[in-house]
Design goal:
Largest sheet: 5 strands, mixed
Shape: elongated
Strand content: 15-25%
Oligomer: single chain
Radius of gyration: 27 Å
Number of strands: 8
Distance between the termini: 52 Å
Helix content: 40-55%
Mean pLDDT: 84
Strand order of the largest sheet: 4-5-6-8-7
Length: about 300
Amino acid sequence: FDNRFLAVNGALVDMLRTTEAALLQRKVSSIYADPEVRENLLHTLHEKDKLHDFSLELLRDDGTTFSARLNSNVLVMDGKKVILATADDVTKSIIAEQRSAVIEDRERLAHELHDSVTQTLYSASLLADTLPVMWEKNRTLAEANLTQLGRLLRSGLAELRTLLLELRPAAVRDQTLSQLVGSLVEAARARMLATVSIETKGDFFYPEDITIAVFRIAQESLNNAINYADASELRVVLVCRPKALDLCIVDNGNGFDPAHIPTGHLGIGIMKERAAKIGAAFHLESRPGRGTEIHVAWPAEEKSNVDG
């Protein structure tokens, strides 16, 4: 490929805010915002002879950039290989997706704030209101309620710390996965009348998308155990290696039939989607009365080192 345009259409000319004559005089590499992206593109084309929905940033004549998706095929013309490519400006759709994700996160945080923190603090306030009277009438029961009040306050603080992590993305980036999962376990321990344990092996920083996806899966799984499992034991095992990880969350609670999950319950589908998006394997095992085990392995082909 000799890095020049053989022909261009009006759509590309308009997207790049230039003219056909000017574009035909330029090198193909000049329209890439990041020249290294073109090298990756060419490497893939050498191997597969085609590309589908390749994401990149293109550079306009006025110096501005826009998000594009490229579809390419390698053809042979007059004995030479040439690239036939079509580009679509997807800036608006990406912005719309980002806005939708922000709205979804806000709604989820509002839901969690209402369902966990608000209810926990409300229960704590009721106990605090009744304690003075209870202390005069039944000292033993009052002492038990005082212990319960302390547990509720610790639970509320742990839940608030978890929510604050999500409101400050930089805080997520600054912590290892072991630290983040540890904060979730701390919140679960405060909220559950159960033995909650965590075992971690290794501690590494992973790419942000990997960290957030696994953090969200662990969060959803632990919330399910807290809200539905009625377990007496909950065990979390996280094994971290430089380029791989295993997460296993096991409880001895109610369990359920994975083939008959009511619509909108447990978020299993969302967890599977999160795992698939980062190329991780997701495995769920549960039976009524026999507890639940959730296992995530990244990358998917990595052999598990977790003994669940």
